[in-house]
Write a structure and sequence with these properties.
OB fold (Dihydrolipoamide Acetyltransferase, E2P), 3 domains, 18 strands
């Protein structure tokens, strides 16, 4: 963490502020300008181990056939004033870093997994992003306001996803409540409509496979694949829609935008498609790219995660930028949207906390909390720290994989060749999802070839995994 510019420990000033917060907590109650929405059937869906809950959701079918969606975002700003010791720490870190074996929280965990987390059965202050969705997935109208909310059911992606896909029974909380079942089915239906509309506009259908360590007594004993499912899609689709609503709400004030530029290396994406017998237009076109990706997912599912990763790398990483009223919109190529920001995770992303403050000031008709220079500096730091975060997580993923594989030396695996470079030939084992160097028997193989490989050695400190041709 420290080698990549992070400060893993909180200062004494942060501890002092936490003590003051504990002694004099802000009031959590309806008030002028703060609605009471505690009676709604709110629920959260997150990872099995998540305790830093940033958002909860509820939906309602309206008489005209549209659906009103409410996404409540934790009001972190009330507990972490701008310029306070906790805020200064968060502004430097900009993000919570998840290393697989330990989380380095942007905010003290007493807040992020406690006081400002939208946990089950406790009243919490929030910003509610409301939007009305038509049956074909268009957002017809929207609003943003403050409210007190109460999460009625803390649920998980794996359990809800399996139930929505009819591959497992409903999790206990869902099984016990017909109202919650109806609520989640409605949310799933609206999310699918939102996704369909995004795809029609050219949003990219990309699949990446993430891994998570299997721990036993604090030791890594294995590695498991994390795949997207209907529940992860549901939350993703709601968050994208909510972030678009917030971005449009802030069109007339300076704010931070999340952008992915039109790919400068589009010619390489065109060449990649040509190698697979497909033709893409010479000028960057997200709709044509998405049609190509969708077709490849159907014809070659084994390689789709690798193709997705190649496209992501060629598109380049997202970045944060200052956008002032009247500035030309830069947009988000991967999502095929013009107005996009990050606003839905203020417990773990500083850009979202800054956006929350701008939003609250606008709702209350108060002066902007940041100058343009401050916002430009925040955007630049958030982009730089995002790159550093990915580096930490990538290095830790390699080390965790090396630990998990270290007791399997000599075993044989099915693998796919993922790269042939001057540095060597790389293969990805299909199960578990682990990449390594083909150190012996690499002659004559090319990207996409399927092989049987034997694990020959691991180096945990360096995150190296070596295979030979079986």
């Amino acid at each position: 963490m420290m080698a990549n510019g992070f400060e893993p420990e909180f200062s004494p000033a942060v501890q002092q502020q936490l003590g003051q917060l504990k002694a004099h907590p802000p009031e959590v109650a309806p008030a002028p300008g703060i609605r009471d929405l505690r009676d709604q059937m709110w629920s959260s869906i997150d990872n099995d181990t998540s305790r830093d809950l940033d958002q909860i959701e509820v939906a309602e079918k309206l008489p005209d056939g549209t659906t009103q969606v409410l996404v409540a975002i934790a009001d972190v700003d009330t507990f972490v004033p701008k310029g306070s010791a906790i805020d200064d720490h968060a502004a430097k870190q900009t993000t919570t870093v998840y290393t697989g074996v330990r989380n380095f929280a942007m905010l003290p965990e007493e807040l992020s997994t406690g006081t400002t987390s939208l946990m089950e059965n406790v009243d919490r202050l929030s910003l509610v992003i409301e939007f009305v969705v038509t049956s074909d997935g268009r957002v017809k109208s929207s609003d943003v306001y403050r409210a007190v909310v109460c999460n009625k059911a803390q649920l998980t992606y794996n359990a809800v996803g399996a139930w929505l896909e009819n591959t497992a029974a409903a999790p206990p909380k869902v099984a016990a409540s017909p109202d919650l079942q109806a609520q989640l089915r409605l949310q799933d239906e609206v999310a699918q409509a939102l996704k369909g509309e995004r795809y029609r506009h050219g949003a990219l259908n990309i699949e990446t496979i993430e891994t998570t360590p299997v721990l036993l007594n604090q030791q890594v004993v294995g590695i498991a694949n994390q795949r997207k499912n209907r529940a992860t899609d549901l939350i993703e689709d709601f968050m994208i829609a909510a972030n678009e609503v917030v971005a449009r709400k802030l069109l007339d004030v300076s704010s931070i935008r999340r952008i992915v530029k039109t790919p400068e290396r589009w010619d390489r994406i065109v060449a990649l498609a040509a190698q697979l017998g497909e033709q893409l237009p010479p000028v960057a076109d997200s709709k044509a790219l998405n049609e190509f990706l969708t077709k490849r997912q159907a014809t070659d599912p084994d390689h789709f995660a690798d193709l997705s990763l190649a496209v992501i790398k060629l598109m380049g990483p997202g970045e944060y930028v200052l956008e002032r009223p009247g500035d030309p919109e830069q947009g988000h190529f991967g999502l095929a949207v013009q107005d996009y920001t990050h606003s839905t995770a203020p417990n773990r992303r500083f850009a979202d906390l800054a956006t929350q403050r701008i939003l609250k000031a606008k709702i209350a008709n108060q002066p902007a909390p940041y100058s343009d220079d401050e916002l430009a500096a925040i955007a630049q730091n958030c982009t730089a720290k995002g790159d550093a975060e990915r580096k930490v997580e990538r290095e830790m993923t390699k080390r965790i994989a090396a630990v998990a594989m270290s007791h399997r030396i000599g075993e044989v695996f099915d693998a796919i060749v993922t790269g042939v470079t001057p540095k060597g030939t790389f293969v990805r084992v299909l199960q578990p999802h682990v990449e390594g160097l083909l150190a012996q028997g690499q002659q004559g193989v090319d990207v996409g070839d399927k092989l049987r490989v034997k694990l020959t050695s691991t180096n945990v400190q360096r995150g190296y995994i070596d295979f030979s041709r079986a």
